[in-house]
Each structure stands twice: as C-alpha cells, then as structure tokens.
Amino acid sequence: MSALRRKFGDDYQVVTTSSSGSGLQPQGPGQGPQQQLVPKKKRQRFVDKNGRCNVQHGNLGSETSRYLSDLFTTLVDLKWRWNLFIFILTYTVAWLFMASMWWVIAYTRGDLNKAHVGNYTPCVANVYNFPSAFLFFIETEATIGYGYRYITDKCPEGIILFLFQSILGSIVDAFLIGCMFIKMSQPKKRAETLMFSEHAVISMRDGKLTLMFRVGNLRNSHMVSAQIRCKLLKSRQTPEGEFLPLDQLELDVGFSTGADQLFLVSPLTICHVIDAKSPFYDLSQRSMQSEQFEIVVILEGIVETTATIGCLLETLGNQEEDTNMTAPRITEIFVYLLLFFLFSQTSLSPILMKGA
C-alpha cells in the first residue's frame, strides 16, 4: 500500500474490493484481495476557476437596509432577469400613474362628457376616456407628437402636470438607463478573453526555485495599466493558539522590481521565487501536495475600448488539475506568431524537490 501511495501520490486512497462486489476475494495462493485506486473527493474552492467567490452573506438582520441606502449599486449587482423585471415594472407603473393623472384632470373638469361638443375647449383635446389619456401620455413622453391630442391654454393644471411629467420622466430615464448602461459596460465578460495556464508549475529559473504560471490576452485591444497580485489563502494557528481560517498572505510576484506591472501584448509567465520570505519555503513536494491552500490571482487593468477598470480573479491550488510537479517547466511560445495551442503546455525539467 505504501508503494502505491508513493507511485500515485496522496490524491488517491487504496480500497479493497472483490470482483463480485461482496466481501474480499483471494486471487490465489499468497495473493491478497484485489486493490483499487479511488480518487479522493475534491475540496470545494474558496474562489472558483471562473473567478466567482463561494461566499454567501447570512444573518444580516437589520443590516439589509444598507443595500437600499446604495440603491444604484444594488440594482447594478442584481442578475439580468431582475434588472429587466425592475426596468419593465418601473416604466409600466410610471406610465399608468401619469395616464391616470391626465384622466383625473379630464374627469374633474367634465371633459369626458363634453369631448364631442363643438364649441367646448377641453384641457387636452380628444381625450375622452382612459385609453386616450394613456395614448396622450405616451405621445408626449416619447416625443412622438401625432398632433391629434394636445394641451390647450385653458388648462393651467394640465400645464403644471406636463412640467411634472417631464421632470419625472427625465429622472426615471437617467436612473434606469444609466443602470442598464453601467451593467452592460461592466468588464466581467472581458475576462473570457484572458487566459491562465491550466497548471502552475515549480521549476528552477535563474538559479532559483520558482512557482510559475502564465497569463495571456486573446484580444488585440490591450489592458492598460495591468497589474497582477497573488494571495495565498491558508488556515493557520497563531503561537497564542488562535485559529485563523482562510488567512491571507501576499505572494511576491515582482512588487519590489516592478514585474507585477504587465505589458500584456503577448503571453507572460508570472514568477514567484520560493526563498526564505516565501510561505512555500518550508514545504517539500509531498507536504505541498497534502497541504490545504489556495492561491488567488488578481489581475487588474483598464479595458482599452471602454476605459473601465476590470478585475479578474483566477484561483490555483493544490488540486491535481492545478499543480504539476512532474513536468515543472512552461513551454515557451514563439513571440511574433502566438500559438495559443501551446499556451498550457509543459515540458519535463529534472529537479529535486525538498524542503529548505
């Protein structure tokens, strides 16, 4: 069993089974039960590979009122289906309310019964029921102006209501259309054309043990003032005995030298040197594979086409699909002709992994 663990690593556990599925079945003289490798269940990530944080806010109590104090941001953060529902509902209620106000004016003045009298001047011409009042409001609000329904100078309350309608319509348009515009211009989908390598590798570079991964841009438009940061999420216990779940440590990816400021025209390899200041300095290959930690990569920059600031989260960890200890060297890509099918390719590099 220990030989199997050394061969396949700690990501598998050895169980004993039989071919019939009941009990243990000897395989012959001197042979034990049949052994089968079963993959361990993968741990849930703090940050998914698509950048979504697996954090839910609960038991807020009276603090939920804070969302209403910042209503605009709350609407922007809602899902699209709720945004569209609020958009349609707000306009529908506003239109029905204003149409009702015009109908009330016509009703109180008696215009509904005298609309067809030849020498009578109503408040609004050709408004004699609620549908016609609704059509008059839509024509004025949308600035269509067919000319069939119009306000006369014999109705001061209608002029005041028309001014109120114009102001209210401008406020509703500015709020809702601005909300939809901000939501559509958010650079979240810009992350779909930013690539991270499938594996993070550890290898020697410039004579130093280095953790490396690659980031690339698929679009011709650049990320202006792009900056990359890495956070190590790991639970630890202080010397005083306090347990800190998901303690955040900064991984140096070139802050002191300015290497964290990226000119992301071609794919770049991001390096973290494992020296005495690195959290990985005291970890061996086996302990690194068994430790529970997660590396969150934060790429920030200004989207060139929309001049909006974008933030992309990518997570790495000690999952089998994230780390690659047996092929720890990233294959270089020809710079002038970007062959993206080589983006995540790795090549073998002889290296002795040991603790410091």
Automatic annotation (TrEMBL):
An example GO BP is: potassium ion import across plasma membrane
Annotated spans, Disordered: 1-40
Task: Give its localization.
Answer: Membrane
Q: Which residues form the Inward rectifier potassium channel C-terminal domain?
A: 194-308
Q: Which residues form the Potassium channel inwardly rectifying transmembrane domain?
A: 47-187
By its UniProt entry, which Pfam families does this protein fall under? IRK, IRK_C
Catalytic activity entry: K(+)(in) = K(+)(out)
Gene3D superfamilies annotated for this entry? Answer: 1.10.287.70, G protein-activated inward rectifier potassium channel 1
TM helices/strands, residue ranges: 84-105, 159-182, 333-353
Compositionally biased residues, Low complexity: 18-37
PANTHER family xrefs: G PROTEIN-ACTIVATED INWARD RECTIFIER POTASSIUM CHANNEL 1 (PTHR11767:SF16), INWARD RECTIFIER POTASSIUM CHANNEL (PTHR11767)
Which family does the record claim for this protein? Belongs to the inward rectifier-type potassium channel (TC 1.A.2.1) family. KCNJ3 subfamily.
- Write the protein's name: G protein-activated inward rectifier potassium channel 1
This chain's source organism reads Bos mutus grunniens (Wild yak)
> What taxonomic classification does the UniProt entry list for its organism?
Eukaryota, Metazoa, Chordata, Craniata, Vertebrata
